[in-house]
Design goal:
Elements (H helix, E strand, L loop, with lengths): L2 E4 L3 E3 L3 H9 L11 E11 L5 E11 L4 H7 L3 E11 L4 E8 L6 E12 L2 E15 L6 H32 L15 H17 L6 H7 L4 H8 L4 H17 L7 H10 L4 H17 L5 H4 L4 H6 L2 E6 L5 E5 L6 H35 L6 E6 L10 H17 L4 E9 L3 H8 L5 H4 L2 E5 L62 E6 L4 E7 L4 E11 L2 E8 L6 E2 L8 E2 L12 E2 L4 E3 L4 E7 L4 E9 L12 H10 L4 E12 H4 L3 H4 L12 E5 L4 E6 L1
Parallel strand pairs: 10-11, 11-12, 12-13
Antiparallel strand pairs: 1-8, 2-8, 3-4, 4-5, 5-6, 6-7, 7-8, 9-10, 14-24, 15-23, 16-22, 16-24, 17-20, 17-21, 17-23, 18-19, 22-26, 25-26
Amino acid sequence: MVQKYQSPVRVYKYPFELVMAAYEKRFPTCPQIPVFLGSEIIHESKSQDGSIHIVERSCKLTVDAPRLLKKIAGVEYVIFVQKNVLNWKDRTLLIEAHNETFANRVIVHENCSYTVHPENDEWTCFEQSASLDIKSFFGFENAVEKIAMKQYTANIKKGKEVIEYYLNELISQGISHIPRWTPSPVREEDQRSLAGSSLELSASHLPSQTYFILLSLIPLDTDYIERYLGHLTPMQESCLIRLRQWLQETHKGKIPKDEHILRFLRARDFHFEKAREMLCQSLNWRKQHQVDYILQTWRPPPLLEEFYAGGWHYQDRDGRPLYILRLGQMDTKGLMKAVGEEALLRHILSVNEEGQKRCEEHTNQLGRPISSWTCLVDLEGLNMRHLWRPGVKALLRMIEVVEDNYPETLGRLLIVRAPRVFPVLWTLVSPLINENTRQKFLIYSGSNYQGPGGLVDYLNKDVIPDFLGGECLCNVPEGGIIPKALYQIEEDQENADRVQLWTETVYQSASVLQGAPHEIAVEILEGESVITWDFDILRGDVVFNLFHSKQAPEPRPRESKSGSSVQLIDQSWVLGVDYNRVESPLVCREGESIQGSHVTRWPGFYLLQWKMATPSACAASSLPRVEDALTSVQSPGHKCKLLYYYEVLASVDFRGSMSSLESCTSGFSQLSATTTSSNQSQSGSLISR
């Protein structure tokens, strides 16, 4: 594999001619660079007018490698050939270097350039790129690669220090200005010859001028990096430059800012290929779902603004923006059913986009890079209501989206007043959180967050919110239980044409008419499984049934639009012959929430059915379908509406899962419950009102 290095544009705030004088002091030897043993000129030429000076040198470098490796290789030093093309007229120095030692086993190429700063002709820019390709080296290819890259990057910073050392030496000697080159009169034929040679030289070195592309967009010099991006090693700088340059050459859309690119590199430990793949997938996702415009286009529903207990609140001691989330006071289940997962995810994405925007603002205000924010999560009030399986499933999906598209944006997570149930939630969500992110979590139970070692170590006292014992008034909404009357009944028509972030949601909606029940088929192939369900009756009264059939049903959709009912049980089927009841009918009233489970005994198809409640439905038998159809014709406007979720788990996975916590004996949501169970089915459903 070819290792590549690309430097940022380094700026010397001195004229080109003075920098060249400092550069020439490095030869023939340079005590400031111990690995540079010396050099000799093997070829030198000048143009007739003296504007172009070409020098080729043979440079001897020592190798900082284990003695055994030197003995096997049979060398104590290596030879590099360096070609310098100095153009006084254009004020450029182009440097090419390659190795002669082991040239058939190792290929090293280096290109450097000194040029005038495009915005200030009294400054000089330096850019450097290199590649290393080890084809074979006595079986020590990996060791040689590591040694070479380590030694190379160690000398990069040293090279700049040497130039600055000689610049200071010149200035101390009273040399602070060197006149620019001026042409001397030449004959006409010499001018034509010189023009041809200059053109040939410029064309041959044209690829080395790629830094002008970078400078024409956003200068990536060392001052810029330290001011806006923070300390980076030479190889980290190289990865950033290479990835940025690759995007400029291949990406058709908006090029992300350097801070954004750097987050993906850090998330993949500066592994170039992995970071590039992750970033490309994220850019495609952003384009597909128009995330770049979410701060301009997204307006949270009033219900979300009122009950979503989260918001921005000043900053922490390190200058990071501070976001407060009162998760324990938030009715996550109610929010999901009232505004939907799509709205919740869009709101979370808008928070992340706002966080990145605030980081940029804090960077400009504080004069140092702020690339992440701090999140303070208050878990007081967290209970089993927050840990129902559909909600946890949706939460995991949201975490996955954020981890994939907003890496390295969380600087610190402060979790306070964690209750006893918190370890259950942590066990479920922690596997999806990146290890680097998990190390930023600080968890406090009870009142441990107060006093030394608590919040005061990370937040100034004047920003600790009042509900945590501080003196600062916090305007974050307090949350609260959402009335079931506010749960979604119809689809959000305003956002119907918007590109959906999720093609499938945890909860599905369905309408139920007389004679037109909604039915779902679950195929069980073999062994014991557990079918779990969770649904809310939003309008009307419904009877819930569970049947088993050995033959596969065929769907007969009543309507094509979303939320319509689907009938599976054929009109010719006879109960007790073609299919059997495995759950006693459960009458579900408007406004009720039902959670339950069923342990399967036989392979085949299990049919979950919701049908409109009738007087006869409260009994064990159901109306013939012909009579149901007649009733439907007589009252076409009467329909029921429900939100439902179901899942099939292997019995071994069900034990100890979140679904088992919600079984008929769990006391889920700490609400009074009525339990209906069937001895035949070994199952139960919980009704909460």
